[in-house]
Design brief:
The protein is of the alpha+beta class. It is built from 14 helices and 22 strands.
């Protein structure tokens, strides 16, 4: 009964966790937690200790009362009921609990430690970070009479040469098993091609403070499905509020979603920043760089602009009503 109840939310939470691990900062804006329509997914990650509050305060958040105005969190005086507050033009001064003011983050080193324990490696093999922020050696153990060295990796394509060197140093040829959140198809175009990669999402079930590992045998026996996708599109923009980049789902903040939604509704036509500002409820002289900075890759891929303040979706990524791409 417990498995049937937790299964769906566990799967969604693992997908969200893997997506965060592939972001360079491993952080998400606070409003992404509260206004996605699925805050239970992130609360599930938090309650299972996979997601924690960063020490970094968000530069802007949505007012928790009206959920329409971007505001800046500021610390409250010592002894105040809440550690932060903000001033909203619609609602006045509003108290902010730390969960709404600070960024949420995942720690890849913690994920590596959980995998080390779940694989039964903890007693003999401490976790070692061998490529900073990218690759962890979990230890070695026998599997079906063959010794394997286990690794955990994220953002692997960003530093493939260093990762290749460390795997070669620590594992004999053909004995490596790299559990990863990185896109498998993208890795095939690097010098890591041919390694045994195991998707974290496919073999790990989230438990409080740890993972349960299932289905690992299929990857060593060659029976695991190998289908991967490198899709880059906005196909899931409205249904899941994510952008697909090389097969990875990138969660979008409400403001960025609103920006892309306005451009999508224009069907490829130019949209002046005045219209975008009105739709987002922000000042007409907003700085595009401020909206873009937390989703730079998303904007670089999907949005085009000119010097007159006009923006439009790249024609390769226009969306039809039935949710498929227009490829011109």
């Amino acid at each position: 009964a417990e498995r049937s109840e937790l299964g769906p939310i566990n799967a969604q939470a693992m997908a969200a966790l893997c997506a965060l691990l592939e972001l360079p900062t491993h952080q998400m804006l606070t409003e992404s937690v509260w206004t996605t329509g699925q805050p239970s997914i992130y609360q599930h990650l938090r309650s299972n200790e996979a997601l924690s509050l960063s020490g970094d305060v968000a530069e802007s958040v949505l007012c928790p009362d009206c959920l329409s105005v971007s505001v800046r969190p500021v610390p409250t005086p010592a002894g105040a009921e809440h550690p932060y507050q903000c001033y909203c033009g619609e609602c006045g001064w509003v108290d902010l609990p730390k969960e709404r003011a600070r960024l949420w983050q995942v720690n890849p080193s913690k994920v590596a430690i959980w995998l080390n324990v779940a694989l039964g490696l903890k007693i003999r093999h401490p976790v070692s970070e061998v490529v900073t922020g990218r690759l962890w050696h979990l230890g070695a153990r026998e599997h079906k009479r063959k010794r394997h060295n286990f690794f955990f990796g994220c953002l692997l394509s960003d530093d493939a040469n260093a990762i290749q060197g460390e795997i070669d140093r620590l594992a004999s040829p053909g004995t490596e098993a790299v559990i990863t959140t990185s896109d498998l198809l993208a890795l095939q175009s690097t010098n890591l091609k041919g390694r045994l990669f195991i998707p974290l999402q496919a073999i790990a079930q989230l438990r409080k403070g740890n993972f349960a590992i299932e289905g690992l045998d299929a990857y060593f026996d060659g029976l695991a499905p190998t289908a991967v996708t490198d899709e880059t599109s906005l196909r899931l923009l409205h249904s899941k509020r994510v952008a697909l980049i090389a097969g990875t789902e990138i969660s979008l903040s409400p403001q960025v979603y609103g920006f892309l939604k306005v451009l999508d509704q224009a069907d490829g036509d130019e949209v002046h920043k005045r219209k975008i500002a009105a739709a987002l409820g922000i000042a007409e002289n907003f700085r595009y760089a401020d909206i873009k900075k937390h989703h730079r890759t998303v904007f670089d891929i999907f949005v085009q602009s000119d010097q007159q303040g006009n923006y439009w979706l790249h024609p390769d990524f226009l969306i039809l009503e039935r949710g498929v791409l227009i490829r011109e």
